[in-house]
Amino acid sequence: MRVVVLVSGTGSLLQALLNASVDPDYGVQVVAVGADRAGIEALARAERSGVPTFIERVGDYPNRQLWDAALAARVAQFQPDLVISAGFLKLVGHDFLVAFGDRFINTHPSLLPAFPGAHPVRDALAYGNTVTGATVFFVDAGTDTGPIIEQRAVSIQPQDTEASLHERIKQVEREMLVEVVGRLARQSWTITGRNVTLR
Ligand code: GRF
After folding, report:
1. Distance of CA 17 to CAs 86, 110, 133, Å?
2. Is there an atom of ligand 1 within 6 Å of 116 CB?
3. Which domains does the chain show, CATH number per domain?
4. Whose CA is nearest to atom 10 of ligand 1?
5. What is the pTM (predicted TM-score) of this model?
6. Given ligand 1 and candidates 121, 132, 173, which is best to mutate, with the most ligand atoms within 8 Å of its CB?
7. Are 133 and 113 spatial neighbours (Cβ–Cβ below 8 Å)?
8. What does the pLDDT look like over 136-182, one tens digit per residue?
9. How do beta strands 53-55 and 29-35 pair?
10. Which pLDDT score, from 0 to 100, does residue 23 have?
Protein backbone atom coordinates (compact mmCIF):
# COMPACT_ATOMS: atom_id res chain seq x y z
CA MET A 1 0.00 0.00 0.00
CA ARG A 2 1.37 3.37 -1.08
CA VAL A 3 1.09 5.92 1.72
CA VAL A 4 1.63 9.69 1.85
CA VAL A 5 2.08 11.09 5.38
CA LEU A 6 1.30 14.75 6.19
CA VAL A 7 3.16 16.35 9.13
CA SER A 8 3.74 19.66 10.93
CA GLY A 9 5.94 18.83 13.93
CA THR A 10 8.39 16.44 15.46
CA GLY A 11 7.13 13.44 13.52
CA SER A 12 7.37 10.66 16.10
CA LEU A 13 4.21 9.11 14.61
CA LEU A 14 5.81 9.30 11.17
CA GLN A 15 8.95 7.65 12.58
CA ALA A 16 6.90 4.74 13.91
CA LEU A 17 5.41 4.23 10.43
CA LEU A 18 8.85 4.51 8.77
CA ASN A 19 10.29 1.94 11.21
CA ALA A 20 7.42 -0.49 10.65
CA SER A 21 7.57 -0.16 6.86
CA VAL A 22 11.17 -1.42 6.78
CA ASP A 23 9.66 -4.92 7.17
CA PRO A 24 8.30 -6.01 3.76
CA ASP A 25 5.65 -8.13 5.53
CA TYR A 26 4.11 -4.94 6.92
CA GLY A 27 2.95 -4.17 3.36
CA VAL A 28 3.28 -0.39 3.55
CA GLN A 29 5.54 1.94 1.60
CA VAL A 30 5.77 5.59 2.67
CA VAL A 31 6.11 7.14 -0.81
CA ALA A 32 6.21 10.79 0.31
CA VAL A 33 6.00 13.05 3.35
CA GLY A 34 4.33 16.45 2.99
CA ALA A 35 4.34 19.42 5.37
CA ASP A 36 2.73 22.83 5.71
CA ARG A 37 5.98 24.37 6.97
CA ALA A 38 9.76 24.04 6.59
CA GLY A 39 12.40 23.34 9.22
CA ILE A 40 10.58 20.66 11.20
CA GLU A 41 12.04 17.45 12.59
CA ALA A 42 9.42 15.37 10.76
CA LEU A 43 10.88 16.41 7.38
CA ALA A 44 14.40 15.60 8.61
CA ARG A 45 13.20 12.13 9.64
CA ALA A 46 11.76 11.55 6.14
CA GLU A 47 14.99 12.71 4.51
CA ARG A 48 17.08 10.42 6.72
CA SER A 49 14.91 7.52 5.52
CA GLY A 50 15.32 8.56 1.88
CA VAL A 51 11.62 9.38 1.47
CA PRO A 52 10.74 12.27 -0.90
CA THR A 53 9.34 15.37 0.85
CA PHE A 54 7.34 18.39 -0.20
CA ILE A 55 6.09 21.58 1.45
CA GLU A 56 2.85 23.44 0.69
CA ARG A 57 2.49 26.61 2.81
CA VAL A 58 -0.92 28.24 3.13
CA GLY A 59 0.79 31.65 3.00
CA ASP A 60 2.17 30.96 -0.49
CA TYR A 61 -1.37 30.96 -1.95
CA PRO A 62 -3.86 33.84 -2.35
CA ASN A 63 -6.46 31.90 -0.40
CA ARG A 64 -7.10 28.68 1.48
CA GLN A 65 -9.05 27.03 -1.37
CA LEU A 66 -6.11 27.38 -3.76
CA TRP A 67 -3.74 25.97 -1.12
CA ASP A 68 -6.10 23.04 -0.60
CA ALA A 69 -6.29 22.32 -4.34
CA ALA A 70 -2.49 22.54 -4.62
CA LEU A 71 -2.03 20.19 -1.68
CA ALA A 72 -4.46 17.70 -3.22
CA ALA A 73 -2.64 17.86 -6.57
CA ARG A 74 0.75 17.44 -4.91
CA VAL A 75 -0.37 14.41 -2.92
CA ALA A 76 -2.05 12.91 -6.02
CA GLN A 77 1.29 12.95 -7.88
CA PHE A 78 2.44 10.18 -5.54
CA GLN A 79 -0.64 8.03 -6.31
CA PRO A 80 -1.29 7.03 -2.69
CA ASP A 81 -3.72 4.32 -1.63
CA LEU A 82 -3.89 6.00 1.78
CA VAL A 83 -3.06 9.48 3.11
CA ILE A 84 -2.24 9.86 6.81
CA SER A 85 -2.41 13.06 8.81
CA ALA A 86 0.17 12.43 11.55
CA GLY A 87 0.37 15.61 13.56
CA PHE A 88 -0.58 17.73 10.52
CA LEU A 89 -1.88 20.98 12.00
CA LYS A 90 -4.15 22.03 9.13
CA LEU A 91 -7.72 21.23 8.21
CA VAL A 92 -8.03 20.29 4.55
CA GLY A 93 -10.88 21.53 2.39
CA HIS A 94 -13.30 20.46 -0.32
CA ASP A 95 -10.85 19.57 -3.10
CA PHE A 96 -8.68 17.45 -0.85
CA LEU A 97 -11.66 15.56 0.52
CA VAL A 98 -13.11 14.98 -2.96
CA ALA A 99 -9.77 13.45 -3.97
CA PHE A 100 -8.99 11.45 -0.82
CA GLY A 101 -12.12 11.49 1.38
CA ASP A 102 -12.46 7.72 1.71
CA ARG A 103 -8.72 7.10 2.16
CA PHE A 104 -7.54 9.92 4.39
CA ILE A 105 -7.03 9.09 8.08
CA ASN A 106 -6.03 11.18 11.08
CA THR A 107 -4.93 10.42 14.62
CA HIS A 108 -6.09 12.60 17.50
CA PRO A 109 -4.96 12.50 21.16
CA SER A 110 -8.37 12.14 22.81
CA LEU A 111 -11.26 9.69 22.86
CA LEU A 112 -13.44 11.45 20.28
CA PRO A 113 -16.04 12.91 20.32
CA ALA A 114 -14.57 14.23 23.58
CA PHE A 115 -12.13 17.10 23.16
CA PRO A 116 -11.89 17.74 19.40
CA GLY A 117 -9.76 20.64 18.17
CA ALA A 118 -6.31 21.99 18.85
CA HIS A 119 -5.79 21.32 22.60
CA PRO A 120 -7.31 17.93 23.42
CA VAL A 121 -4.76 16.98 26.08
CA ARG A 122 -5.01 20.31 27.91
CA ASP A 123 -8.83 20.17 27.62
CA ALA A 124 -9.07 16.66 29.11
CA LEU A 125 -6.88 17.72 32.07
CA ALA A 126 -8.86 20.92 32.60
CA TYR A 127 -12.15 18.99 32.55
CA GLY A 128 -10.87 16.71 35.29
CA ASN A 129 -11.16 13.49 33.27
CA THR A 130 -9.47 10.44 34.75
CA VAL A 131 -9.29 8.65 31.40
CA THR A 132 -8.48 9.98 27.95
CA GLY A 133 -6.80 8.32 24.97
CA ALA A 134 -6.36 8.41 21.23
CA THR A 135 -8.55 7.94 18.16
CA VAL A 136 -7.74 6.99 14.58
CA PHE A 137 -10.49 8.02 12.18
CA PHE A 138 -11.32 8.78 8.56
CA VAL A 139 -11.31 12.54 8.01
CA ASP A 140 -14.55 14.23 6.95
CA ALA A 141 -15.47 17.88 6.50
CA GLY A 142 -15.82 18.53 10.24
CA THR A 143 -13.16 19.06 12.90
CA ASP A 144 -12.26 15.59 14.25
CA THR A 145 -15.76 14.28 13.45
CA GLY A 146 -15.11 11.49 10.91
CA PRO A 147 -15.91 7.77 11.17
CA ILE A 148 -13.83 6.10 13.89
CA ILE A 149 -11.54 3.17 13.04
CA GLU A 150 -10.05 2.51 16.48
CA GLN A 151 -9.63 4.07 19.93
CA ARG A 152 -7.41 3.29 22.90
CA ALA A 153 -7.68 4.57 26.45
CA VAL A 154 -4.96 6.12 28.62
CA SER A 155 -5.38 6.82 32.36
CA ILE A 156 -4.73 10.31 33.64
CA GLN A 157 -2.53 10.41 36.75
CA PRO A 158 -2.99 13.13 39.42
CA GLN A 159 0.54 14.43 38.84
CA ASP A 160 0.17 14.63 35.04
CA THR A 161 1.08 17.79 33.14
CA GLU A 162 -0.03 18.42 29.57
CA ALA A 163 3.43 17.32 28.39
CA SER A 164 3.65 14.12 30.45
CA LEU A 165 0.13 13.05 29.52
CA HIS A 166 0.61 13.85 25.83
CA GLU A 167 3.80 11.77 25.79
CA ARG A 168 1.97 8.76 27.29
CA ILE A 169 -0.87 9.18 24.80
CA LYS A 170 1.61 9.39 21.93
CA GLN A 171 3.14 6.04 22.92
CA VAL A 172 -0.30 4.48 22.56
CA GLU A 173 -1.04 6.53 19.43
CA ARG A 174 2.13 5.31 17.68
CA GLU A 175 1.35 1.67 18.36
CA MET A 176 -2.29 2.03 17.34
CA LEU A 177 -1.51 3.96 14.16
CA VAL A 178 1.06 1.39 13.04
CA GLU A 179 -1.41 -1.45 13.69
CA VAL A 180 -4.36 0.27 11.99
CA VAL A 181 -2.31 1.19 8.91
CA GLY A 182 -1.04 -2.40 8.69
CA ARG A 183 -4.60 -3.67 8.80
CA LEU A 184 -5.70 -1.19 6.12
CA ALA A 185 -2.82 -2.45 3.97
CA ARG A 186 -3.89 -6.07 4.29
CA GLN A 187 -7.67 -5.69 4.25
CA SER A 188 -10.19 -3.70 2.25
CA TRP A 189 -12.44 -1.25 4.04
CA THR A 190 -15.90 0.18 3.62
CA ILE A 191 -17.32 3.26 5.31
CA THR A 192 -21.08 3.18 5.84
CA GLY A 193 -22.31 6.23 7.69
CA ARG A 194 -20.26 6.28 10.88
CA ASN A 195 -19.26 2.61 10.65
CA VAL A 196 -15.95 1.40 9.31
CA THR A 197 -15.73 -2.26 8.33
CA LEU A 198 -12.51 -4.06 7.49
CA ARG A 199 -12.62 -7.42 5.75
C1 GRF B 1 0.03 13.57 18.07
O2 GRF B 1 -0.44 13.48 19.39
C3 GRF B 1 -1.09 13.88 17.11
O4 GRF B 1 -2.27 13.20 17.37
C5 GRF B 1 -1.25 15.34 17.38
O6 GRF B 1 0.07 15.83 17.41
C7 GRF B 1 0.93 14.79 17.86
C8 GRF B 1 1.97 14.57 16.80
O9 GRF B 1 3.16 14.12 17.34
N10 GRF B 1 -2.11 15.97 16.40
P11 GRF B 1 4.46 13.87 16.43
O12 GRF B 1 4.76 15.14 15.65
O13 GRF B 1 4.17 12.72 15.50
O14 GRF B 1 5.54 13.52 17.39
Report:
1. 10, 20, 19
2. no
3. 2-198 (3.40.50.170)
4. 87
5. 0.97
6. 173
7. no
8. 999 999 999 999 999 999 999 999 999 999 999 999 999 999 999 99
9. parallel
10. 97
